[in-house]
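For the sake of transparency, this paper describes our internal protein records without simplification. Such a record has a labelled line for the sequence and another for the backbone structure tokens. Nothing more is needed to write down the fold, since each code stands for a local backbone conformation. For reference, a complete record is included directly beneath this paragraph.
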Amino acid sequence: MDFRPLGVDYSLKSSDSYQDVKLRLHHYLIDRIDIERVSVGDMGRNELSDFVLGKVSQYVAEHRLPVSRHEMENLSREMVDELTGYGPLEELIRDDRINDILVNGTRHIYVERAGILSKTDLRFIDDEHVLRVIRRILAPLGRRIDESSPMVDARLPDGSRVNAIIPPLALDGPCLSIRKFRKDPLQAGDLLAAGTYSEDMLTFLEHAVSKRCNVLISGGTGAGKTTMLNVLSRFISPYERLVTIEDAAELQLGHEHVVRLETRPPNVDGRGEVSARELMRNALRMRPDRVLLGEVRSVEVMDMLQAMNTGHDGCMSTVHANSPRDALLRLEMLAGFSGFQGQDVTLKNMIATALDLVIQVGRLTDGRRRILAISEVLGVQDGRIVTNELFVYQPERKVFEATGLSPANPKLRLRDDDQAVKFHRSW
């Protein structure tokens, strides 16, 4: 499957001679702009395109380059992108089919669409070219990147997430990762049509959210955790007040009453940081009906668990883990990092009473995303957290199955006559 934008001669664009022409043409344009005192910022896109096309035509004629009209128009368009946009990334950013853009140095640009990574034939001129684009992306955000601060995490105005890391930390040249923001967030019906879950699972999850169950969504990178959190939030009553906490705001809840909070990294002097833990504590003073923590990854885990245990039902969060079991173990580990001084069994009881459901999501080898398991958290028995697996995905047969076990938690039962089961799985 070809994910490259249409109408582009990639065989030409990827050649070294073409890149050399681009480099020389770029310097030529900058010189002409300086000599003629042209204000690029005051020009509209069409006016700038006409100006650049004229200069490209002039340069091609002066140097007698064997360039066709089509190639010259491509060069002109790319030069406009160089002057005002993000260079070779401009067309990728405009392509709504692409979810992720990954730049590994100058010659390797990958895109991800429908869960599949594909290498493009686009490339940068040199390391300085990559750095220039990275700085252009970061400039409106008030962020900087240089040798003294060689890593940066940021959010574009449209909500897209950006991460950049440069030498000396990145050994093969500057690297850039962009997780694009969907203008139209996926709905529950979209995921159902894509086979992310079955109708029975969707009905169950909608019921669980409406009953204000505390939910933890677990999965690996790119598994669809945030998308699942977005979809579940659509089942929340419009009369409830939500507070969201994220490192980079990307939740699209479509809810009328939402307060969105975002952490802040330290400045260049190491000051001004506002952590998720601080925001979590502040959120509980804002009279929330529910708190949605974009991802639990550090010491804020204790504040989240305390909120879930003190009347803030219906909270949701995500965590990086490979299974429901690993998700609960990770919460224990993060609680240890937070300085929890109590006994292990006390911590396990806190986790077990706080959480109602763990939803495990994953990305299959073909790029498709699925709910792999839905597990109810029951309690603690013999010093272990005990769960009840309600739904599971069978990859061999590519089907979803209900395990046949009824929830022990009355809030999770779709019918009052469902019989609660005893302990099913523990660790």
